[in-house]
Specification:
Layout (H helix, E strand, L loop, with lengths): L13 H6 L2 H9 L6 H12 L37 H16 L7 H14 L4 H20 L2 H7 L3 H14 L1 H7 L2 H16 L3 H18 L12 H25 L39 H12 L1 H7 L6 H20 L7 H4 L10 H29 L30 H28 L4 H7 L4 H22 L4 H19 L5 H25 L5 H9 L4 E2 L2 E2 L3 H9 L3 E3 L8 E3 L5 H8 L16
Antiparallel strand pairs: 1-2, 3-4
Helix pairs in contact: 4-6, 6-8, 6-10, 10-11, 10-12, 11-12, 12-13, 13-15, 13-17, 14-15, 15-17, 17-18, 17-19, 17-20, 18-20, 18-21, 20-21, 20-22, 20-25, 21-22
Length: 621
Amino acid sequence: MQADSWTPHHTRSAQDIAQAPPSTHDAAVLYRTPASSFGIAQEVAENFGASSVLQTPTSALPGSSTHSQLEAAPVYQLFDFTLPPKGTLDAILDTYLKAVHWFMLLFHEPSFRLRYESLMPRGIQSRADSRFSLLLLTIWILGCKYMSKDDASRLGFDAKNFQTAALRHLEANLMFLFEDSELESVQVCVLLGSFYLYTGRPNLGFVVLGSGIRCAFALGLHRESSWPSLAQEVQEERKRVWWALFIFDRFASIVYGHPCGIREGEFEVSEPRNFDDTSSQQPSSRASAEAVTAFTYVTCKIELYRISSPIMTELYTQNISHQQASRIIYDVDKRLSEWREGLPNELRLDVVQAFKEQPASIALQETLMLQALALQVAYDNILILLHRPLLHKTKPSEASDRLRTPSPLPFAGQELPTSTTHTARYSILHTANDTSTQRCLESALRSASICDLKNCLCIAKNTHALAYFGINLFTAGMILSTVALSRPLSLAAQQAKKAIRKILITSSAFKNDTPIACQTHRILGELVRLILDKELAVLTDANPETSRLANTCNGSGSVGGRSQQPLGDTTVRDFRHGMFAEDPLVGNTWESPVELNLLDGINSLQTGECSRFLFVFVGTH
């Protein structure tokens, strides 16, 4: 599966440019990349043979990279705290590689180990060595976070105190990394930003991510054509770092609700290739045309987040009509479905789920299991984000009691006929709302179903993925709560409550491992109380059917001058149009009423006793 098989509609390929008329082609080349202030001086020097003019100091000019030299020093004297023995540092590095490296592939492991083993005995001798020592420090910080208490005790190592001291030293030296803006600067920003995000300091994580994007631009990491003289291994490592940054940027844009820092069409970097450090194959795939390795996950994730780009760059940032939004939703939904169908079996959660009760004893099997889970969770979270705009288009007055089975997504990229009547146009647009409701509910239920994969979650406990799963479960919980609040006592509400219960149990089990789980448990607990209050109100005197029943018993059969059906007939009418759907990830066949007054549910989330809890998750420390 290759992500470059999909090209955004607003991005021109090299072939398109080559086949364009000469004037257009020349303009594409001339205006491809703007030059910095220092870059203009370089062009003048190269064109007119005046290279001597650049031999004077240029460090104050934007775009230059002149830095002062550092004094050599042993590694154990670099930091303002005491490092543990090298054997302990090696164990911390191994923990990082097992817990984070598979999730965020930022370097070539053999090359990294060679550099690490070389630096430790000789110390730093250049600014590059100093930057690498700060990258090592970042890796040790994350390794300490995921090192088990038993391993730390066996080594006689206080991981918590070391992590605190190392983080303090790293934060004090961030400006050094920003000033250099080299590859290590970007790597540190990706790792540190994710560390902040997953440990309860999301705002700081977002800012550090933004700094990493700016460092990447300053380095020219977004222009592969500017690296021709670099060795192949170095180029591949740069690609890995760029795409890890891209994925983190897209994920952050989704969970924070902020614009993307990297936009399609503003970079030219090919996908990284599978290298010798990720060549181990899953045994069941050795006979397949394309071997499935731990690296396959990277290419699949790149394609998934590239497909999602129009959601944040077009759907949520432009003032578009309901019809335009539906067209974008249709196109992206189609691409997402094709992406999911194209996943290899080893990265499909429904295949992995068949082995949920079997212990994973092989390291690669564990990694592929976690990667399959991460891809499914990301897919469902993106689907929820994609279809959420149409949920808000349904006004309370538009929602009826009648439940309809939705048709496939409308429009298929075509304009509505101009002759379409207002009633017909409303019906088509309403079908889009119904279908988006269905997609959101299906995705939220699938996300909640990962709570059944106890073996998988136990493996994820000491990895970077646990908090990632927690964030996506929180989103699913909000959608499920909206469904339960919008139609109390309906079949969909009962299914949603069962799924919420799974999320509550899981978040309670891991609330000591990540603050995300703790806050998810607290917020969902309050929402459950609100759901029960609303159901109680419907069961007592808040149900309009009460007055209908009273009038029927009195023989009037009407309310407000309009003929009414008996209560029994109304109940049958309400549920006979329910849509039945079966999904291997959801489990049993479930009935989901798809015409929900979700706006009412969303309003309920923002009012009442639960409103003060909805801002706990993001933006708190």
